[in-house]
């Protein structure tokens, strides 16, 4: 079945027409819709699904449920739900499904999901984790390419960034927590921050500062050096720019120390997979991270020819390193495939009755 796959991220929108193994990608929904008159389904990426473990068919009740989660993912959830509304209006006869970034992390052990808060808060304030669709895709690709890699860290590094510790194909830890603000330094988001610092900022905000806006839009690489694009940061580093050099050092420090936490959760490390815009296209970041992880047996050789899944492990390295081309669209299609198959099955008839 041919499907329209809609992926609303924090910094971009990607729309694909998927008829595996072929995909055709567009930068806007407007560009894709004229080609979507024969699709059998629409599949949406929705960042926050609460405690849902599987994809779900979209109806009014599900949309209302997902709107209740907007405050937990304010950069992503509204954009995704706006596209859901539009697709339901433009393609009213086509069944629509949602895949959730949080679902992959529902296998994380309870101790790793639980914050040390009073009981009255703990049912709601838990570590959900995000980027699950991307982490699931990279996990699937590495397991196909290298089935002996049982303990894997996936580094999704893009405008948003997170790590996932994966054991035998299942998430056991991730760096994003209650919201997509947590964890690594990102393009405009701060990543992990002492909650006491947030309280201090709230008490000392000046000039009408919106602390939420500061942490979501003015922090990360942008806050450190004024540029949110890693490509620009790296160019400035080549020119010896002090602010850019500090930004890169902070970024890599948080990345490497967080990988160390993932390794501790896994009890060792067999492989690392880099994906996302920075993960795929910034070999400088991979090399810097590998150099600081050489004590684990990580070393990279970037001479491998580009391919959807390429291994960049240096000769003699104990840990295998991969670069995985992100394909959340194909992962979403795979996740909803059983539901799509059910749509195409003929309705059983009662014994003795004629098929309709």
Polypeptide structure, described:
The protein is an alpha/beta fold. It folds into two domains: 3-100, ATPase, nucleotide binding domain (Nucleotidyltransferase, domain 5), CATH 3.30.420.40; 132-325, 2-Layer Sandwich (Nucleotidyltransferase, domain 5). The protein has helices spanning 29-32, 60-67, 77-90, 110-113, 119-122, 132-145, 195-204, 211-217, 220-225, 230-238, 242-266, 276-281, 283-292, 328-344, and strands at 3-8, 13-19, 22-26, 41-46, 56-57, 96-100, 151-157, 161-167, 170-174, 271-275, 309-311, 320-324. Strands 3-2-1-4-6-5 form a six-stranded mixed β-sheet, sandwiched between helices. Strands 9-8-7-10-12-11 form a six-stranded mixed β-sheet, with helices on both faces. A hairpin with a 2-residue loop joins β2 and β3. α6 (132-145) crosses α14 (328-344) and α10 (230-238) crosses α11. The chain is globular and about 55 Å long. The two termini are 23 Å apart. The relative contact order is 0.13. Residues 347-356 have low confidence and may be disordered.
Lay out the secondary structure.
Layout: E1 3-8, E2 13-19, E3 22-26, H1 29-32, E4 41-46, E5 56-57, H2 60-67, H3 77-90, E6 96-100, H4 110-113, H5 119-122, H6 132-145, E7 151-157, E8 161-167, E9 170-174, H7 195-204, H8 211-217, H9 220-225, H10 230-238, H11 242-266, E10 271-275, H12 276-281, H13 283-292, E11 309-311, E12 320-324, H14 328-344
Parallel strand pairs: 1-4, 4-6, 7-10, 10-12
Antiparallel strand pairs: 1-2, 2-3, 5-6, 7-8, 8-9, 11-12
Helix pairs in contact: 6-14, 10-11, 11-13
């Amino acid at each position: 079945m041919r499907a329209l796959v809609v992926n609303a991220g924090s910094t971009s929108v990607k729309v694909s027409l998927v008829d595996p193994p072929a995909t055709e990608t567009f930068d806007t929904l407007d560009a894709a819709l004229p080609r979507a008159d024969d699709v059998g389904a629409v599949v949406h990426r929705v960042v926050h699904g609460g405690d849902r473990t599987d994809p779900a068919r979209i109806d009014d009740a599900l949309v209302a449920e997902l709107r209740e989660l907007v405050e937990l993912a304010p950069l992503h959830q509204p954009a995704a739900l706006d596209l859901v509304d539009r697709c339901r209006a433009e393609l009213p006869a086509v069944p629509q499904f949602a895949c959730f970034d949080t679902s992959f992390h529902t296998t994380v052990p309870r101790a790793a999901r639980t914050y040390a808060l009073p009981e009255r808060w703990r049912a709601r304030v838990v570590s959900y984790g995000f980027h699950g669709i991307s982490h699931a895709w990279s996990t699937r690709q590495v397991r196909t390419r290298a089935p002996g890699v049982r303990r894997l860290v996936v580094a999704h590094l893009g405008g948003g960034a997170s790590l996932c510790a994966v054991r035998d194909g299942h998430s056991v830890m991730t760096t994003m927590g209650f919201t997509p603000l947590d964890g690594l330094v990102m393009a405009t988001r701060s990543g992990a921050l002492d909650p006491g610092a947030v309280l201090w900022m709230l008490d000392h905000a000046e000039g009408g500062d919106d602390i939420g806006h500061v942490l979501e839009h003015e922090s990360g690489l942008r806050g450190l050096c004024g540029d949110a694009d890693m490509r620009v940061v790296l160019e400035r580093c080549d020119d010896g720019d002090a602010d850019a050099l500090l930004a890169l050092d902070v970024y890599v420090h948080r990345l490497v120390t967080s990988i160390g936490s993932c390794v501790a959760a896994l009890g060792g490390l067999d492989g690392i997979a880099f994906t996302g815009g920075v993960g795929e296209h910034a070999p400088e970041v991979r090399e810097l991270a590998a150099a600081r992880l050489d004590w684990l047996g990580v070393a990279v050789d970037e001479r491998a020819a580009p391919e959807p899944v390429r291994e960049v492990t240096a000769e003699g390295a104990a840990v295998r390193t991969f670069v995985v081309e992100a394909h959340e669209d194909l992962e979403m299609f795979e996740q909803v495939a059983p539901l799509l198959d059910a749509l195409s099955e003929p309705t059983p008839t009662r014994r003795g009755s004629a098929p309709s």
